[in-house]
Amino acid sequence: MNKRTIVSAAVLAAFTATLPLGAMAAPDLKVALIAGKTGVLEAYAKETETGFMMGLEYLTGGKMEINGRKLKVIVKDDQSKPDLGRTLLAEAYGDDKVDIAVGTTSSGSAIAMLPVAAEYKKVLIIEPAVADAITGDKWNRYIFRTARNSMQDALSAAATLKGGSVAFLAQDYAFGKDAIKAGKEALAATGSKAKVVHEEYAPQTATDFTASAQRIFAALKDKPQPRVLGIVWAGPSPMNKIADMQPGRYGIALAPGGNILPVMKTWRNYAGTEGTIYYYYDFPKNKMNDWFVAEHKKRFKAPPDMFTAGGFAAASAVVTALKKAGSGDTEKLIAAMEGMDFETPKGKMSFRKQDHQAMQSMYHFRIKKTQKDEWDLLELVREIPASELPVPVRNKR
Description:
disordered N terminus; globular; alpha/beta; BCAA_transport; 16 strands; 12 helices; 4-stranded parallel β-sheet
């Protein structure tokens, strides 16, 4: 190295030292999104990814930057398999060095991922898995959830029932059993006088519901009115097939849980049927949702769906947390996120400090009699505020 080279290097070093911190390129902020893009929950996962990316776009003004640092998103498909979900999250934290992770679609896979977040001491935002155990007995301090949980679904449904008799139809696996357990607890928690008279569990792959319906009708038909059949189902709903068996002849009303728009389109012949839902594009009235609906319609020729809204909510939690923490440091993120309010297409959500569950409103809907177009499906009966949903704290913090 000659004398001129030495002098030039010294001058460059001195100049660099005098630069303001913002003038030097800061490392990218990295976020992993894990979703079950292959398998039975594929439609939900794709909606989540779309909503997540649209949320980041909106919240960063299209720059994909937070506090001057580029935001990089790494998407991984866990195929809704718990072992793969666990492996991909470890890969995201260990190899990809992500600052924060979001996922996943299946509750089984999400539960498998929880200990990985604790092992790597990194934040994991759960979206859209709903099992109560995630913020209950399987929870750890690195877990936050923007998705609603089974109890929030159940409490919102219970808020619409004042008495009478209830039967449930659900899928025979963790999601279905968790939801019905929550449903029974919710009726008790809200002081409803409705009595659960039957629980029916069918295989996830069931297509013939004749035997199930006969057992349900037999259990309900002589019980006190109103007689309600609550249907809790992930994927293509059996509501049409149950309705074809004419439960109305026994005075039985169907009460479906909200589903994705392509499924609810098949319900348009059941005007007047009521249920509850996490999100329907026409219900929230705020600037963020206005942009979301208009932009989604422009890009995809259809309004955003409930899992799209969930992805957007997770993006809002990520952006709000990283801005508030001022870095991707885990302890700073946790401190910022506990009790944190953040805006979503549904309105404000808040991470409860005790278990990091996002407290949020839900919606009581009725299927419309007059529908203007293929997506004009539901009318709002009432927004059920978070204050009316007494979600119990179930972790051991």
